[in-house]
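Section 5: illustrative case.
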């Protein structure tokens, strides 16, 4: 059901584009899993299950993709280890601490440059 945009949007969608990150950390499927496993609790969300992960070794897309479903939507990450970058989404119908997500991502993957955009969906 579409809500009246004048009263309230469906929810925030945070998009992070991160560059100059640590290649080894971006290639570490265990680290990316732990990152996704801990993030929901850090921002007050409830996981539906464990993160789902895929690792890619192709030189063009070497890295890790992961998603964790949360009661209020999802959190996803796509890392590109050889390019030292990753892209991440946090989408929820519940408000969350954007700065906490940014700090956790920056600290976990040693991000050199981060572009952050918060979109109001719905």
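Designed sequence:
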């Amino acid at each position: 059901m579409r809500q009246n945009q004048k009263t309230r949007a469906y929810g925030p969608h945070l998009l992070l584009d991160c560059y100059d990150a640590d290649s080894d950390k971006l290639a570490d499927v265990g680290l990316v899993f732990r990152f996704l496993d801990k993030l929901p609790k850090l921002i007050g969300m409830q996981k539906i299950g464990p993160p789902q992960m895929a690792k890619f070794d192709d030189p063009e897309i070497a890295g890790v993709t992961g998603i964790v479903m949360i009661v209020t939507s999802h959190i996803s990450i796509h890392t590109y280890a050889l390019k030292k970058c990753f892209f991440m989404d946090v989408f929820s119908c519940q408000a969350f601490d954007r700065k906490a997500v940014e700090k956790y991502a920056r600290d976990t993957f040693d991000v050199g440059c981060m572009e952050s955009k918060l979109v109001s969906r719905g």
